[in-house]
Design goal:
By secondary structure, the protein is mainly alpha-helical. It has a single domain (82-310), classed as MetI-like fold (Orthogonal Bundle), CATH 1.10.3720. It has helices at residues 2-9, 29-63, 74-78, 82-115, 122-133, 139-149, 154-162, 177-201, 205-213, 218-246, 250-256, 263-272, 279-310. The protein is globular, with a radius of gyration of 29 Å.
Length: 312
């Protein structure tokens, strides 16, 4: 009886997981290093506050004020004027053309350097040039294109002298829509190369080998494997190129002056204080540009995050 009761009462011991002891609070060197890390990012936040956040807030307030500082919506009504709408439309066309051309040519260049089985020195040379050319803009770029493709530019003179071809007889002008778009492509293409190259590096070799083992063709690989992975990166980069060209002002002003009515030049004319001076209308123009570039950059960030999730 007692044996049976002992057997009945014998229970396996419950294994209680050990309770982790709290991590001791680190003071001294750890806290000091964290404090120094925050000090390291102070210049960034200061720069963003002074040159991005405060100016954006200032123009947002000014866009809803008249010259006496009273609240008004007249500045946004003035955005519907034909000259302003034409300026936005030309800026859209220049930005769309340069971003599309930069995206196509830049993607092909990046593909040739990454997966084109070219000599090994091609890729680092292209990356170095792209890093320099993508930041080469403003007055120096405008001057370079005037000296190259102007009416007495080097290429124009050589074409007329040795081939008997007058470039300007075709209607081309470096001061026109096509000339400005061509100039923008100089920094748009290298920027596209820099952005899309990491995406091309993310294409795993095993994917192509698996497609070949299953009897797939090169077209099927790019149609069903590579392009579904690459399209968010390519489309996002194209949106970034659009925002980059839409906000460019120094190159356009130095190249065309006031002969091409784009929104950045119109904005400059409104703020600098000439006969077209209407500072608050300039704030409304700038706010519209912030909205357009903000949407483009937001689309780029969303597509980039989607591309990163797709490559995991």
């Amino acid at each position: 009886m007692s044996a049976s009761s002992d057997a009945g009462t014998a229970q396996p011991e419950l294994l209680v997981p050990p309770v982790p002891s709290p991590t001791p609070r680190v003071d001294g060197p750890g806290r000091a290093s964290q404090f120094l890390a925050w000090i390291g990012v102070v210049p960034f936040f200061t720069f963003a506050l002074l040159f991005l956040i405060l100016p954006t807030g200032f123009l947002m307030v000014g866009a809803f004020q008249d010259s006496q500082g009273h609240f008004t919506l007249a500045n946004f009504r003035d955005l519907l004027q034909p000259t302003v709408m034409d300026a936005y439309w030309i800026s859209f066309k220049v930005s769309a053309a340069s971003s599309l051309g930069g995206a196509v040519i830049g993607s092909l260049l990046a593909w040739a350097a990454v997966q084109g089985k070219l000599p090994g020195w091609i890729r680092p040379t292209l990356m170095t040039f792209s890093g320099v050319a993508s930041n080469f803009a403003g007055v120096p770029l405008a001057f370079a294109f005037i000296c190259t493709l102007g009416r007495v530019g080097l290429v124009t003179v050589l074409l007329k002298k040795y081939l008997g071809f007058n470039l300007y007889s075709t209607g081309f002008s470096i001061l026109s829509f096509s000339g400005l778009t061509l100039t923008y492509l100089y920094f748009q293409i290298p920027l596209m190369v820099l952005i899309v190259t990491p995406a091309l590096d993310g294409l795993k070799r095993e994917w192509r080998e698996a497609c070949d083992c299953l009897g797939g063709t090169a077209y099927q690989y790019w149609r069903y494997v590579a392009l579904p992975v690459l399209w968010p990166s390519v489309l996002g980069a194209a949106l970034l190129l659009f925002a980059n060209s839409f906000g460019a002002v120094a190159t356009a002003y130095a190249l065309t002056g006031s002969s091409l009515n784009i929104v950045t030049i119109l904005l400059y004319a409104q703020i600098r204080g000439d006969v077209m001076h209407n500072q608050n209308l300039g704030y409304a123009l700038a706010l519209g540009m912030v909205l357009v570039t903000g949407l483009s950059n937001g689309g780029y960030i969303w597509l980039r995050s989607r591309a990163e999730r797709g490559r995991r």
